[in-house]
């Protein structure tokens, strides 16, 4: 979502093993594969969701990892680690007004777009196809399309469904409810962590007390252990930590933030990349994923972003479809399940969702996201210094005009 820029020009030969090269230098500017990795991670969420949405049972990753994580959880954790890396750099490079403005125009417009698309395109189409009067669909109550949008527009999901749409799908039968888009819940957490970085930036922590970031990361890792040992006590200590997703996603995000704030001191090295992969895989299948696997996975995904072949770097460098893939994937799969495509089997059901989702992601980027991001330097995006200067200039101009006015004589 945020580009990392630097003036350092590191020879490609130095990136093969990492002799003296930092992670920040290796990920310089758009010379990395973060775009393709985010696209892969978003696609893995589709692969994961195909199991429950198609009625194929539980993601087998839960069984392989002894209940530690799913494939989708692993992908979302990777997303949050990358986000933490990029967002903390944005927090350092901009003032808090610029930061919040640019984060808002990145996350909200496309989110509102998928809400409107679900409520006023998908919903009425399914309703009409079933031969039901559209007047009954467009109700103003909490269960209708307007209620769906107003209950969710702040990112906090207050309504997952509209009327009884998709109740007859495999997933609808499982949860006995209408669910249009079950992927959107993570965005409120992401926005919450953006606000955390804003607080750290405005309090000068990112500039003068960077050690606070890894300290927070360590606290979240301890909270992970405590939640396993005494899960009922976490909410009593701090109500926020009663939510296991806060701990998991917060840990992934803060690991990325730690790697970002110290990116010029952390080595980029093939040996560290291999070690991270071994630790990640080992902890997933033997235990300790939350404490050791998440930090290892955070380093691994950023290492891969610098290590993958150069010919992959163009993917996502200018057109980032990963966010659109993530927010539309679940909705597309629910539509396909409603049409009975799941009866063709898991593989075909999953493959059928990919091109449709990518097309909607393409539309989302070119119609909404790219246009919103074009406003990053508009209004609040100009920053506090610009508006302070404008205010000071106007105040001085007004003062000068007042002093130059003739004095009246009675």
List keywords for this structure.
410 residues
Brief characterization of the structure:
This protein is mostly helical. Helix content is 65%, strand content 0%.
> Per the principal axes of the C-alpha atoms, what is the gross shape?
globular
Report helical residue fraction. 55-70%
**Got a strand count?**
0
Task: Identify low-pLDDT runs.
Answer: 1-16
The biggest sheet, with number of strands, parallel, antiparallel or mixed sense and barrel status, is: none
Describe this entry's structure for a reader:
By secondary structure, the protein is mainly α. It is 65% helix and 0% strand. The radius of gyration is 24 Å and the shape is globular. The longest helix is centred in the N-terminal third of the chain and has 34 residues. The N terminus is likely disordered.
What is the element layout, followed by pairings?
Layout: H1 23-26, H2 34-53, H3 61-64, H4 71-93, H5 96-129, H6 134-137, H7 145-152, H8 170-175, H9 186-202, H10 205-208, H11 212-229, H12 234-237, H13 244-261, H14 270-286, H15 289-307, H16 322-338, H17 346-373, H18 384-404
Helix pairs in contact: 2-4, 2-15, 2-16, 2-17, 4-9, 4-13, 4-15, 5-7, 5-9, 5-16, 5-17, 11-13, 13-15, 14-15, 16-17
């Amino acid at each position: 979502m945020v580009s990392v820029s630097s003036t350092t020009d590191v020879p490609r030969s130095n990136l093969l093993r990492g002799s003296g090269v930092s992670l920040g230098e290796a990920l310089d500017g758009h010379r990395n594969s973060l775009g393709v990795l985010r696209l892969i991670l978003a696609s893995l969420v589709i692969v994961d969701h195909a199991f429950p949405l198609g009625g194929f049972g539980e993601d087998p990753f839960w069984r392989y990892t002894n209940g530690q994580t799913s494939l989708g959880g692993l992908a979302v954790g990777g997303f949050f680690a990358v986000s933490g890396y990029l967002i903390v750099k944005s927090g350092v490079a901009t003032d808090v007004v610029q930061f919040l403005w640019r984060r808002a125009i990145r996350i909200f417009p496309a989110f509102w777009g998928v809400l409107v698309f679900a409520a006023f395109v998908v919903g009425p189409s399914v309703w009409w196809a079933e031969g039901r009067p559209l007047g009954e669909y467009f109700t103003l109550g909490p269960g209708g399309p307007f209620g769906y949008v107003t209950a969710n527009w702040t990112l906090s999901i207050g309504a997952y469904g509209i009327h009884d749409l998709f109740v007859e799908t495999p997933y609808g039968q499982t949860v006995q409810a209408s669910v249009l888009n079950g992927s959107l819940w993570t965005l409120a957490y992401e926005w919450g962590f953006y606000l955390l970085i804003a607080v750290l930036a405005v309090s000068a922590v990112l500039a003068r007390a960077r050690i606070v970031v890894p300290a927070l990361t360590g606290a979240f890792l301890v909270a992970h252990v405590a939640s396993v040992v005494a899960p009922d006590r976490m909410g009593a200590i701090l109500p926020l930590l009663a939510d296991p997703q806060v701990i998991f996603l917060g840990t992934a995000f803060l690991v990325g933030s730690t790697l970002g704030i110290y990116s010029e001191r952390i080595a980029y090295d093939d040996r560290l990349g291999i070690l991270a992969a071994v630790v990640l895989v080992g902890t997933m299948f033997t235990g300790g994923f939350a404490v050791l696997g998440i930090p290892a996975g955070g380093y691994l995904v950023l290492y891969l972003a610098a290590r993958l072949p150069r010919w992959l770097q163009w993917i996502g460098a200018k057109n980032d479809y990963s966010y659109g893939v993530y927010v539309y994937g679940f909705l597309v799969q629910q539509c396909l399940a409603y049409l009975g495509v799941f009866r063709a089997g898991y593989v075909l059901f999953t493959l059928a969702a990919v091109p449709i989702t990518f097309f909607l992601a393409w539309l989302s980027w070119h119609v909404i996201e790219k246009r919103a991001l074009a406003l990053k330097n508009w209004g609040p995006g100009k920053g506090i210094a610009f508006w302070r200067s404008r205010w000071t200039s106007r105040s001085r101009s007004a003062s000068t005009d007042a002093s130059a006015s003739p004095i009246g004589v009675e």
